[in-house]
Amino acid sequence: MNTKDLAYFKALVEKRNFTAVAKAFNVSQPTVTQAVKRLEREFEDELVHVDRAHNRTEITRSGLLLYEKASTVAASLNLAHQEIENAKLSRIRFGLPPIIGTLYFPALAGQLLKDGLLQRLDLVETGSGGLLSAVKEGEIDIALLASVLPLHDPSLNVIHIGSRPFVAVVSRRHRLANRGSVFFKELANEEFIMLNRKFVHPKAFKAYSQFAGVNPPVIYRTPDISWITSLVKENLGVSLLVRDVVSSSDESELSCLQILDPVAERFNVSIVIRQGYVLTAEEKHFIEELKQLKIPQSQ
């Protein structure tokens, strides 16, 4: 079967016009017609019915079934082209969220540099939600990302590294600063400053809110963690962050409160690879190094 025939047919289903398809591919109309006829011979059924009386191009049920499969084939071919082009460059297309990049990844940088892998990285930095989509769509091949629950997705190969708790972060001037722990319902009237929806934190915030039956106001969202901690230090609001964001140097101005509600959501760190992607020797080595990442024991 000619993949070009499938491309013509897919476009015909979408445009319902032989002339428009021919123009889009810069070929003659008979070329498109013959492509459809070849496919009909291949599948021994009518795929396209031309209603000349009403000047309509109709797609049969068999044609619609083939269209769905053709769309999948086209997506797979595009992905294969991306992967093969990248293989020629010997680069590692890697996604890393800013939080994990700041908190955990630097510990590996020295070894990666020594092994010649750090120089090979084509790094994409954004929130975990964006990186998950990028892996699935073939924009990157490997990601180290976070999820509020352990990932289970048949389209991905997932290697779980560890998990960390979320905490309520408040200024040392806040009325709850010396409590050590709180139930989330005690934060119902607090004004939250949160990471935006590219990160996993809003999902954890929603889970805690639903469990506690409260709806705390979010007054500001940003992708900048340092900006969040700066605003919280000024007692302009509170936040929900992974525990490790607050370093020992911040503890004179910030207080981390354990949240006592028994929700399952945590900051899970995983290596994610697209299912079916064939790793190079360098990528296999890189993943083995990532597996050595030290995530502190959960508290």
Separate helix tally: 10
The CATH H-level homologous superfamily of the largest domain:
Periplasmic binding protein-like II
Widest β-sheet, arrangement of strands: 4-3-5-13-6
Overall pLDDT, averaged? 88
Task: Note the overall shape.
Answer: elongated
Helix share, percent: 40-55%
Assigned CATH architecture of the largest domain: 3-Layer(aba) Sandwich
Number of strands: 13
Low-confidence stretches: none
Work out the strand percent: 15-25%
Give the topology string: H per helix, E per strand: HHHEEHEHHEHEEEEEHEHEEEH
For the biggest sheet, the summary is: 5 strands, mixed
Structural class: alpha/beta
Radius of gyration: 26 Å
Q: What's the number of domains?
A: 3
**Tell me, what is the CATH class of the largest domain?**
Alpha Beta
CATH topology of the largest domain: D-Maltodextrin-Binding Protein, domain 2
Cα separation of the termini: 57 Å
